[in-house]
Design brief:
heterodimer; A: 263 residues; mainly alpha; B: 261 residues
Chain lengths: 263, 261
């Protein structure tokens, strides 16, 4: 008998892995060589950053009641309403995407297309589009947040619906229940923990996003930030950043607490 | 009480109903304070129809500019992913409580928390102010975003490993680097590759946007086209962004498939 050597991977697997490493390295080298970076800026960066932080300190707390509070509340409302809008819009898409509820491949594909395009376009880009449609302000921001979140909520909700146990559904069907009752009493109890989890998770993300969409004119604290930066009022900029930071942390704590309670 | 007890199959859940009422109440209050009215919405729909009309057909005449920008976007994503992943490895390792002493985990955890706390766009604005317009600011932004994301997940993955191989290596007198290399990494490599490909995908998505605040890539062109009412070119840019993102998702799925079998 010839001695056999045991190997973890087949030659094809090793070749595939090697190709990926090679492509990654080549892509990195090519990118590093062609991307236009001014080296002086890089050497200069630490000094510039230090200078910027020096000008930011101390934050201008007196600015909060007049300029920040209202915008911050508006941001929170945009995040909340955007999440609710997203849930309302993503429910039908999720129903279409779930193969066990909609056994029509063409409709599944349509739903998946909606989900993918919603996620491919960044919130800021959605915001730009809706500012063009509805004009600057919170309405554009709310709808932008809603449209961006369809992809996320719809995908996760659709997956939760697909994992449902068929037993209760068939029991209700056999008893002759109409479709709304089947959904409410058979599917909903099974997906509701997932639903609330998704809602909380997305709300947390949307709080972060609602803070920046103002940069393109879609309302909220981002507009105050944009103004402060354009006017070089660095102490106000640092105050706004501190406020955003505080709100994001509080939102995260709230989400963690509620999640522990209901799931 | 009367004896007519009707048996209901499903008991009404009053707490849940109150909750739904509260949600509706919040919606009314928020809609009022955001100045969102039906009239504005209807006017907006008319605008929207006009807007969509001027977007069709998409204008691909300036495809050279478009292609150049897409390439820059991709380059930002590639460089940022490489450095972000390379930096988040040691930071994630330092943040894992089961391998490192407290004096190492705390600073690492603070770094990760700072990277995660702000939206990438805010980092992009700060970096544009610090290092000037252009792709460098975008790369730095996405490196920070990557450290925040992968660093956290990697630290969590390391905290979940089985400690038996680690103890075996230590008992055999292996130096620290060997413990990491032979006892820790093999247990987390697969998940790490999953995180890295996901982050590459996310970096492509985000690098299309950092240009809006001047940090390089296709976002700058997109914002310029929007401000000049070049809506047919805007449509072309949007289509190419969606194609690029889907391509990135496809690439990530190939890499994951190769490493997972």
């Amino acid at each position: 008998m010839t001695s056999r050597t045991w190997e973890r991977f087949t030659p094809a697997q090793r070749l595939a892995r090697f190709t990926i490493y090679l492509v990654a390295v080549i892509a990195l080298v090519v990118s590093m060589r062609t991307v236009q970076i001014v080296p002086e800026f890089l050497y200069d960066a630490p000094t510039q950053m230090a200078d910027m932080f020096e000008r930011m300190w101390p934050p201008d707390y007196a600015y909060y009641p007049g300029g920040v509070h209202e915008a911050l509340v508006e941001s929170m409302h945009i995040a909340g309403m955007g999440t609710i809008l997203a849930l309302v819009m993503s429910l039908p898409v999720a129903l279409l995407a779930a193969k066990n509820i909609t056994p029509v491949p063409a409709l599944n594909w349509l739903a998946r297309l909606i989900l993918v395009s919603s996620r491919s376009v960044n919130t800021l880009v959605w915001a730009i589009l809706f500012v063009a449609v509805f004009g600057p302000g919170a309405l554009a921001g709310t709808i932008a947040i809603g449209f961006r979140s369809i992809g996320f909520c719809g995908k996760l909700l659709g997956e939760a619906l697909e994992e449902c146990n068929k037993g209760p559904v068939e029991a209700l069907k056999a008893a002759g229940a109409p479709w709304p009752s089947i959904f409410l009493k058979a599917y909903w109890p099974q997906v509701s923990p997932a639903f609330w989890g998704i809602t909380l998770f997305r709300w947390d993300i949307n709080v972060r996003e609602s803070a920046v969409i103002g940069l393109v004119g879609a309302g909220g604290i981002g507009m105050a930030l944009d103004t402060a930066i354009d006017l070089f009022r660095w102490t106000q900029v640092s105050l706004i950043l501190l406020c955003i930071f505080a709100v994001v942390i509080v939102a995260e704590i709230v989400v963690t607490k509620i999640r522990q309670k209901i799931i | 009480m009367s004896a007519a007890i009707t048996r209901r199959a499903f008991k009404p859940n009053w707490l849940a109903r109150l909750g739904w009422l509260a949600v509706i109440g919040y919606c009314v209050i928020a809609l009022g304070s955001l100045d969102i009215t039906w009239d504005r919405f209807v006017i907006g729909l008319e605008n929207g129809a006009k807007f969509l009309g001027s977007m069709i057909p998409p204008n691909f005449e300036r495809w050279k500019l478009l292609l150049g920008n897409l390439l820059e976007t991709l380059e930002i994503a590639v460089i940022a992913s490489a450095f972000g992943v390379a930096l988040s490895l040691p930071i994630g390792l330092a943040a894992s409580r089961n391998l490192m002493p407290t004096w190492a985990t705390w600073p690492a955890r603070i770094v990760i928390a700072i990277c995660r706390s702000f939206h990438p766009v805010i980092f992009a604005i700060l970096f544009v102010k610090a290092v000037g317009f252009g792709p460098l600011a975008g790369i730095l932004t996405l490196v920070f975003a990557s450290i925040g994301f992968i660093g956290k997940l990697f630290a969590e993955a390391i905290e979940e490993i089985s400690l038996k191989p680690v103890e075996a290596c230590r008992a055999a007198g292996a130096p620290f680097m060997s413990v990491i290399l032979y006892a820790v990494l093999p247990q987390v490599l697969n998940r790490f590759i999953g995180f890295a490909t996901y982050q590459f995908d996310a970096n492509i998505r985000n690098s299309t946007m950092v240009g809006i605040v001047g940090a390089g890539g296709i976002g700058g062109t997109l914002f310029a086209a929007f401000q000049r009412f070049d809506y047919d070119f805007l449509a072309a840019i949007l289509i190419s962004i969606i194609v690029l993102v889907m391509l990135g998702e496809y690439l990530a799925s190939i890499v994951k498939a190769v490493f997972n079998d």
